[in-house]
Amino acid sequence: MSLGIAKSGLTLAAIAAICAALVAVTYHLTRDRIAANQQAMLEQSLAPALAGLEFEGPISESRLVIPPPHDLPGPGPAIVYRVFASGKPLAALIAVTAPNGYAGPIRILVGISYEGNVTGVRILEHRETPGLGDGIESTRSDWVYQFDGRSLGDPALAGWALKRDGGVFDQLSGASVTPRAVLQAIRETLLYFDAHREALFAAPASEDDK
Amino acid sequence: MNATAFGERLKAGLWQDNPGLVQMLGLCPLLAVTTTFVNGFGLGIATLLVLGGSNVLVSATRRWIRTEIRIPIYVLIIASLVTCIELIFKAWFPTLDHSLGIFIPLIVTNCAIVARAEIFASKNPVGQSLADGIGMGAGFTLLLATLGFVRELIGSGSILSRMDLLFGGDPMRGLVLVDGGWLLAILPPGAFFALAILVAAKSVLDNRQRQKARDAGRAPGAATSAQGPTIS
Given pLDDT bands bounded at 50, 70 and 90, which one contains residue B87? Predict the structure, then answer.
């Protein structure tokens, strides 16, 4: 009896070791490609939030990680990319997390020009309902474009809400939790940028945490 | 194993014992991702690869595995294969992986895969098990792709949108017939309706086939498909 158990245990251990080896080999073979993909995807996803601004060099090199606690939306560290033109600060891209999406957190990239105008908003990651909440994606509807060119003064802070909540921004038909979460995150990001602008552009780039 | 036996397994997977249409297995991903053709097809291929791999591994190790520990071993094999497939998708089809999201890791829980390991691969030689995995995987892919195609057509009014997820390049909107469609079709209830219609259509076709065989005075041919679906 105990011999049987030992034998079963050994078989299980052997198969587990083989499976672990299989995964380890695949991981090793794909690791560099996946990292390169993520880097390419990052650059690709950053550019649209800059709406035609002329800038120099790869954006991802000016990466700044702000560890929590900070006043930006989302519990984890926030990431800021600074964009310069001839040495002068031009815009910042801030990746934040709206914690209160309908189906979990929504990762958002907010582009803000040095003067404080929104240069573009893109959704990086979400799990919202297909056909309803996923209208926040720029490939599925034009909803995110309504923030382009807006700033803290346009509209005034009280106007930074959905029309249904007394603000000036359109909702998405059939979804209110999702756009509300995104909108709130953009507003908080603008407030943070307004308060910390000079410090953000002056800080040295963060080391790669690989 | 010869070509006819392989053809038999393929036919069983694609039609008579189609894991989705007849066995009603793996409905969770089947219903969740089939909002577009490319999503359905992508998940179908991922499932096919896992199913083929797990059938081969289960069949190859079937002599050493005691029955009491077979289920944890199936889970181990399937989970590691799925992890590998996920890494491969992330490396070569990053945008498709992004679009399918959690449903690639969730292939682990697709009961069609455990079912084939238990029913077929644990009792048959490697070659036949591979053929069974490919047949069942192809049947599942065919169903996912068909459901995706139909739901996309009705729900979004487009055909083959976002094929760039598979082939790379700029986002493609596909052939847009009308802007926006009948939303219900891409919501979860639409998946159930579309699946029900496909199951009914298969029954109609099978019945017609049997009727024809009877009229011709021959023995009914499609006897295997007469058994009821097993729900899991």
Answer: very high
To the nearest whole number, what is the mean pLDDT of chain A?
86
CB proximity under 8 Å: B 113-152 to A: none
Domain of residue A121, residue span: 47-202
Contacts of A34 in chain B (CB under 8 A): 87, 90-91, 94
**Structure token digits, residue A185:** 């995150």
Q: pTM of the prediction?
A: 0.69
Testing the interface with A: which of B58, B62, B76 to mutate, by most A Cβ within 10 A? Answer: B76
Exposure string over A155-165, b if 16+ CB within 10 A, otherwise e: eeeeebbbeee
Which phi-psi region, left, alpha or beta, contains residue B27 (left: φ > 0; alpha: ψ -120 to 50)?
alpha
- Model confidence over A139-197: pLDDT tens digits? 788 898 999 989 998 888 889 999 988 889 998 887 889 999 999 999 999 999 999 98
Does residue A98 lie in a domain region? yes
* Minimal CA separation from A41 to chain B, in Å: 9
- A13 within a domain of the structure (yes/no): no
Q: How many domains does chain A have?
A: 1
Nearest to A182 by CA among A139, A128, A131, A130: A128
Token pair belonging to B193: 């309706």
Size of chain A in residues: 210
- This model of the complex carries an ipTM of 0.72
In a domain, A148, yes or no: yes
DSSP B138-182: HHHHHHHHHHHHHHHHHHTSEESTTTHHHH-SS----EESSSS--
With beta carbons less than 8 A apart as the criterion, state whether A128 and A178 touch.
yes
A73 in any annotated domain:
yes
Handedness of CA A75, A81, A87, A89 (dihedral sign): negative
Which DSSP state fits B218? P
Least confident of A94-108, A170-184, B91-105: B91-105
